[in-house]
Amino acid sequence: WKKETISGPLSRKAATRGRLGNAHIEGKTKTRKLRHAPLPPDLVEMFRAHRTAQMRAALAHGWRWSAQGYVFVDDRTGEPIAVDHIRYRWSRIKRAAKLPSKMTVHDNRVTALTILALDGVPASVRKLLSGHSTAKMDELYTSHAALEDVRRAVG
Q1: Could you give the angle at the alpha carbon of 93 between the alpha carbons of 88 and 96, nearest 5°?
Q2: What is the pLDDT of residues 12-70, one digit of tens each?
Q3: Which of 55, 80, 104, 137 is paired with 122 by a 20 to 30 Å CA distance?
Q4: End-to-end alpha-carbon separation of the chain, Å?
Q5: H/E stretch holding 4
């Protein structure tokens, strides 16, 4: 919760966590800048309810709870969720939704940017939402959107 601030309609991301080999690594975002993303009111409420449930879990587990400031943690320990566990859950979600097995979590980011591009959201807004430092980066993510326009045009 220290690294991710959820207040009103904005979420701010200041740090990232991942895995390199067998080691979990933590660091700032690539651009070292805060990233802002608008959140719909119902999602803000869901995050608030999640935070309340986490605080209850922390009280119930007492000294065994490790408050490290992450939004998503192990329900029993407060420790950050292991990357392997996220991959496991993602594979179950893909199977249940009949998504391609090779689809990655990052593909969701690309899909979201593509949908925004196809919906006519200006590149400057997509750049801000994605945290891309240049318009060229946004173009790399959404250039296939133009191909979808051509496919629709020719039927």
Answers
A1: 125
A2: 555 566 655 666 566 666 666 666 667 778 888 888 898 889 889 888 888 778 877 77
A3: 104
A4: 48
A5: strand 4-7
E strands, 9-137, in order: 10-13, 15-20, 23-28, 35-38
Give the DSSP letter of residue 2: -
Please report how the helices 135-154 and 105-118 are oriented relative to each other, as an axis angle in degrees rounded to 10: 70
Of 48, 46, 19, 16, nearest to 32 by C-alpha is 16
Instruction: Kindly report whether the global pTM for this prediction surpasses the value 0.85.
Output: no
Q: Angle formed by the axes of helices 123-130 and 105-118, to 10°? A: 160
Amino acid occupying residue 108:
N
User: Long-range contacts of range 137-143, CB-CB < 8 Å, 24 or more positions apart?
Assistant: 138/113, 141/109, 141/110, 141/113, 141/114, 142/113, 142/114, 142/116, 142/117
